[in-house]
Automatic annotation (TrEMBL):
Residues 56-434 form the Cation/H+ exchanger transmembrane domain. It is a multi-pass membrane protein. GO terms for cellular component: endomembrane system; membrane. This is Cation/H(+) antiporter 15. Residues 674-693 are annotated as: Disordered. It comes from Sesamum radiatum (Black benniseed). Residues 674-684 have a biased composition (Polar residues). Residues 490-626 form the Cation/H(+) antiporter central domain.
Amino acid sequence: MSERATISANKSRDAIVCYSPTMITTNGIWQGEDPLDFSLPLFVLQVTLIICTTRMLVFILKPFRQPRVIAEILGGVILGPSVLGRSTEFSITLFPLRSVMVLETMANVGLLYFLFLVGVEMDIVHVIKTSGRKALVIAVTGMILPFLIGVSFSFILHQSAQYVKLGTFIIFLGVALSVTAFPVLARILAELKLVNTEIGKIAMASALLNDMCAWILLAVALAIAENEYWSLNSLLVITGTTAYVVFCVYVVRPLVLWVIQRTPEGEPVSEVYICLILSGVMISGFITDAIGTHSVFGAFVYGLVIPNGPIGATIIERLEDFVLGLLLPLFFAISGLKTDVTSIDGAGTWAILALVIVLASAGKITGTLLVSLFYDIPFYEGITLGLLLNTKGLVEIIVLNVGKDQNVLDDKTFAIMVIVAVVMTSIVQPGVTTLYRPARKRVAYKRRTIQRTKPDGEFRVVVCVHTPRNVPTIIQLLEASHPTKKSPICAYVLHLVELSGRASAVHIVQYTRKSGRPAINRMQAQSDHIFNAFQNFEQQGGFVSVTPFTAISQYSTIHEDICNLAEDKRAALIIIPFHKQQTVDGRMEDTNSSFRMLNQNVLAHAPCSVGILVDRGLNGQKRISQNQILHHIAVLFFGGPDDREALSYAWRLSQHPENNLTVMRFVLGDNGLKTTTESNSGQEKLTVETDDDREKKLDEKCINEFREITMNSPAVMYMEKVVNHGKKQ
C-alpha cells in the first residue's frame, strides 16, 4: 500500500479499509499491474457486470409480467453476499470493500437525479384538482393499516436492534410497509392498459399522495434519528427543512417560471439555464444533507417545484436514459450487496417474514376496499385498487437504505424488508391481470355494422392515428361522410403510442390529462398537435363531435385498446391507417413493421366493422370552385358481407353534395356458375350451395335497397359486369 494511504471505517461492519487515493488509473497489464487494483477499471467492470446481470433478469422475468425494478433488486441480491458474494474470492476480487465507497457514491448521485426526475413528473396541483377527496382518503386509509402493522412488528424486530430508539425504528418500518412506489405503479398500469380507466386514475393519484406522506414521515424520522425526542437539534432539523421547502416554493419556482417566460414558444431552452437547474440538484442535496435531512429529500422537493413546460421536457429528455438505464441499477446493486438473506436464521424469523408479507398486503387491500365500498366502487375493483397500491420496490428500497445508512435497521431487518418489497411487488401485476382483466368474449353475430346503424341515428367511429401525417386524410374522410343534424358523427380519436422499454411515469401520466396543458415531451407534443387538428375540425365541421384518447401499449397488444374502446363506445366502424404510406415517387413503402400485425389483430378481434385507410392523396378529387371540391368514389361489388358493408358506407358518402359515387357490380356468368357447381359434390356441395344461395339473397337484397334509395340521385351511377372466372363478357 502507498504511504499516503487513507483509513476509512465502515460503521456497519466495524471494518477498517485502506486505500490509496492515487491508484485510480492503471499503467497497463504490460507493466505488471493488475487493473482490478485500481479504482477506475474496477468501477467500469462492476458497472458492466451489474448492467448485464439486471438486463438478463429483465429478459428472463418478462414472460412473468414482472416490472423492471424486481429484476434490478434481484440482480443486486444475486451479486451480493446472499448468492455469488458467498464466494470469498468473488467478493474480494470484484466487490472489495475499498470499491464500495466509489460505487455507492455514484449510485447515490444517480438516486439524487432520479428523485429529481420523479419530482418533475409529479403535478400535485393537478392531482388535487382532478382526483379530489376520494384519492386523498384512499391514500391515507391505505397507509394507516399497513403502518399500524409495521408498528406491531417493530416491537418484535426491535429486539435485535436495541441500540436504535424505538420511535425512529417504528417510523422507518411503518413507512416501508405503507408506501406505494408511484413510478413503478405507473408502468404497471400502462402494461395492464388501466391508465385511462377510473381505477387507474385513482390508483395513480393515491400513490402520488401516498408518496408525499411517506417523504414527510421520512423527514421527521431522520430529524429524530440522531437526537432525543423534541430536543433542540430535532427542532432545528425540522425548522431548517421547512425553510428549505418554503425557499423552493417561493424563490426557486418563480425563477424557473421567469426563465420559461423568457423562452420564445417553440424554441429550445438555453443551455445555461439547463446547466444551472441540473447543478441545483446537487446543491439541494447538499443543503438538506447539511440540515440533517437526507439529500434525496432535497432533490425530490427541488424537482416538485419545476413547472411543466419546455424546461421539464428538456431535462427529462437529457437525463432519463442515462439515469434510469445506468445509474439507478447501481443503487439497486448496492442494496443487493447490503442484503444478506443468510442473516434471516431460524424458522421463527422466516415465519415473521411470511406474516409481515401477508398482513401488510391484507392491510393495504382491506383499508383500500373499505373506502372503495364507501365511494360505491365495485367490490372487485376495490380489491384490485388495493392490490395496485401494494406496489413496492423503488421508494421502499430508498427508505430502507436510508434507514440502514442511519444505523436504524440492522442486517436482518433490512434483508427481511427487501424480501417483503420484492414479494409484494411481484404479485401485483399477475394478481390484477387475473382479477380485473378477464378476456372479453365477443359474439360474432352481435357485432355492430354500418348496415345496422339507423340512417337518422348517431354514426360512431373510432379513428386510429399513428402520426400527424394520418390526420388530413382522416379529417377529409370524416367530412365526406356527410354529418348532418339527423345523423351526426361521433369520432373517438385514438392516438396510438408505443410503450417502449424506457417509458417513464411522466409519459404515462401526462397522456391521461386533457389537452391544453404544455407539452413536456415530443410524443405529447405530437398528441396535442393531432388532437388540436381534430378539435378545430369539430368547431368548423358542424355536426361532428370529437373525443380524444391515447392508447399507450406495446404494438403486440395495442389492438386490445382499440377493440375495447370500440366496444365501450358502441362504435359501428373502426378506421385504421394502412401499414404502408405513399412516397414522393408514388410508390408505397412500409412505415413500421409492427403496423401490419396490428391491423391483422384488429381485423381478427374487432367488435364492429373495420376500414383500412390507404392514403394515396385522394387523387379522385376535382376542384369545381375555390371552396368546393368534388370527390369521385368507386365501389367494386363482388358480393359477400364485406362488400355489403362497403356499399352501406358508400351510400352514406353519396349523400354528401360534393361526392359522386359509381358502383360496379361483378356478376358471375353462366360458364363461371357451371364450373363452380361442378367443382362440388355430395353433402359438401349441398352445404356450399346453401351458403352461396344465402349470400346471394343478401347481396340481391342489399343491391335492390341501394338502387331503390339512389334511383333519383344524379350523383350515383350503377353498372353491372358479367365475368367468367376473371374473363369479362
